[in-house]
């Protein structure tokens, strides 16, 4: 049942544009009549199923969408270069689809400097907060969402400078500008870049 739930959640994410793993798993459980939701598949199991689904059913169109999202991410990362941006999430790991957004992490202890940078470059944004675990504690950090005319929304999480050097806040997978360029040029799997 766990495997069926993972594949149903993956199908919902791929076909319906659902980006929230927890929501997709609960909806899959309802659709398959699985009343006991304590044993839902992990996000990693759904991600594996999603990768398989996209490869099997969305092949070329998915590759083109993913390439376009990665190109857009690279353009924004080049703009944000003073803040040492890193790409994370579904655009990096290859599970992103048409409705996916781009997730970047930058490092700065000065939120106002980030705001001034965005204003200086005439980038419209919405500010907010993102919950992350830093040094073993849940913390709220500033975030900004850039709405672009020709692409996906870009979510930027602003992490403190000490998080870069402490190793306490590293997503499962991340890529700097050079790694993303290599990924675009070679078509490598992200796992090969992160080792």
Shape: globular
| SSE arrangement, N to C | HHHHEHEHEEEHHH
**How much of the sequence is in beta strands?**
15-25%
Contiguous uncertain segments of 5+ residues: 191-195
Share in helix: 40-55%
Total of domains: 2
Tags for this entry?
five-stranded mixed β-sheet; 18% strand; 9 helices; 5 strands; Beta Polymerase, domain 2; 2 domains; 50% helix; disordered C terminus; alpha+beta; 195 residues
Chart the SSEs and their pairings.
Elements: H1 2-16, H2 21-31, H3 43-57, H4 59-79, E1 86-88, H5 90-93, E2 102-107, H6 111-120, E3 125-134, E4 137-146, E5 154-159, H7 161-166, H8 177-186, H9 190-194
Parallel strand pairs: 2-5
Antiparallel strand pairs: 1-2, 3-4, 4-5
Walk me through what this model shows.
Helices cover 50% and strands 18% of the residues. The chain is α+β, with helices and mostly antiparallel strands and 195 residues long. It folds into 2 domains: 2-57, no CATH class; 60-194, Beta Polymerase, domain 2, CATH 3.30.460. It has a 5-stranded mixed sheet with strand order 1-2-5-4-3. Strand 3 and strand 4 (137-146) form a beta hairpin. Helix 1 (2-16) packs across helix 2, helix 1 (2-16) crosses helix 3 and helix 4 (59-79) packs antiparallel against helix 8 (177-186). The chain is globular and about 50 Å long.
């Amino acid at each position: 049942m766990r495997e069926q739930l993972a594949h149903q959640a993956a199908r919902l994410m791929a076909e319906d544009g659902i980006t929230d793993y927890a929501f997709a798993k609960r909806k899959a459980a309802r659709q398959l009549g699985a009343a006991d939701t304590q044993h839902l598949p992990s996000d990693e199991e759904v991600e594996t199923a999603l990768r398989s689904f996209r490869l099997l059913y969305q092949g070329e169109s998915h590759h083109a969408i993913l390439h376009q999202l990665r190109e857009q991410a690279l353009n924004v990362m080049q703009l944000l270069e003073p803040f040492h941006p890193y790409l994370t999430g579904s655009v990096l790991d290859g599970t992103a689809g048409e409705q996916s957004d781009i997730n970047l992490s930058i490092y700065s202890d000065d939120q106002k400097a980030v705001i001034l940078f965005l204003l200086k470059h005439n980038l419209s944004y919405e500010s907010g907060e993102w919950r992350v675990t830093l040094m073993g504690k849940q913390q709220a950090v500033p975030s900004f969402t850039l709405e672009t005319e020709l692409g996906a929304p870009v979510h930027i999480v602003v992490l403190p400078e000490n998080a870069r050097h402490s190793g306490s806040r590293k997503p499962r997978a991340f890529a700097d500008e050079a790694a993303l360029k290599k990924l675009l040029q070679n078509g490598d799997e992200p796992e090969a870049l992160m080792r």
